[in-house]
């Protein structure tokens, strides 16, 4: 029987190296506020989790706040602010909730199913693939990047910049989702990021409206009325399946993924695009179409 490895916290030397690499070496403008510094720390955190911990089984996997506290304690520049870490985290969470989001609503060839992704945590909800915009990033560029990272599918050739649904949540955060229609339901999907997506599945639109038992659809339901309106104006060229009920199809599951399917890109490269974010875009709920 193999001996169980005792887990340990990262050393001060490792934490100092991560602080230098991801925080102190960042452009000076990125060190001017704790909101921006926390984005840099988040990048260091995912690098630690995805690269360092994976290659050293002795190291302990940490929650983001726990890692941040250790980094602040080890980094001379950040150490004086450790006592205020709760306030810093609260402000950071508020800041992130205002960053504009972009993504895509991917429809199958009959426009009867849409592709949804589920987050990594047990408490995660189902949503359309989407994510926060990076500094100076266009909405469509963010949508293409996020969909690729979360599903492994490149929508750049199918995405039309004028076809989108946009909603502002709580009067603070705008979410723009481009409608990408006509994707074959046997398309291979697999996330390129690690520990972010646990499942990818095609879900029938009519069942989402009724509220499928067990599914959390808080980030899906607000878009359904506008999406159905879009579909009514853009009928599918492929005949709908009227002969039998359509069912949900799980196309990727982290628990069942093979080693080959787990050949992810480093999440640190993703986070590096998110060190800064654009100023909030004033946006009302809208459904734009040519």
TrEMBL record:
SUPFAM superfamilies: Dcp2 domain-like, Nudix. It is found in: Cytoplasm. The keyword Hydrolase applies. One of its GO terms (biological process) is deadenylation-dependent decapping of nuclear-transcribed mRNA. Residues 97-225 form the Nudix hydrolase domain. The keyword Transmembrane helix does not apply. Belongs to the Nudix hydrolase family. DCP2 subfamily. This is mRNA-decapping enzyme subunit 2-like. It comes from Raphanus sativus (Radish). The gene is LOC108853476.
């Amino acid at each position: 029987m193999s001996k169980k490895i005792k887990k340990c916290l990262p050393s001060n030397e490792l934490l100092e190296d991560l602080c230098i690499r991801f925080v102190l070496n960042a452009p000076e403008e990125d060190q001017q506020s704790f909101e921006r510094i926390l984005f840099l720390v988040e990048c260091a955190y995912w690098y630690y989790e995805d690269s360092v911990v994976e290659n050293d089984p002795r190291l302990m996997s940490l929650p983001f706040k726990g890692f941040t506290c250790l980094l602040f304690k080890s980094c001379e520049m950040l150490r004086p602010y450790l006592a205020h870490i709760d306030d810093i985290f609260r402000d950071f969470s508020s800041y992130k909730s205002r960053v504009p989001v972009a993504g895509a609503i991917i429809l199958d060839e009959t426009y009867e199913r849409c592709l949804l992704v589920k987050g990594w945590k047990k408490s995660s909800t189902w949503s359309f693939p989407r994510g926060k915009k990076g500094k100076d990033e266009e909405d469509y560029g963010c949508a293409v990047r996020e969909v690729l990272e979360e599903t492994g599918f490149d929508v750049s050739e199918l995405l039309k910049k004028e076809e989108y649904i946009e909603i502002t949540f709580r009067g603070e955060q705008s979410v723009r989702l481009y409608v990408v229609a006509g994707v074959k339901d046997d398309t291979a999907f697999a996330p390129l990021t690690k520990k972010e997506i646990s499942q990818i599945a095609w879900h029938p639109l009519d069942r989402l409206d009724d509220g499928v038992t067990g599914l959390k659809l808080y980030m899906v339901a607000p878009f359904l009325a506008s999406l159905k309106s879009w579909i009514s104006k853009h009928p599918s060229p492929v005949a709908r399946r009227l002969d039998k009920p359509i069912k949900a199809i799980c196309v990727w599951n982290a628990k069942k993924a093979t080693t080959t399917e787990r050949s992810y890109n480093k999440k640190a490269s993703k986070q590096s695009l998110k060190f800064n974010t654009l100023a909030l875009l004033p946006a009302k709920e809208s459904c734009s179409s040519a």
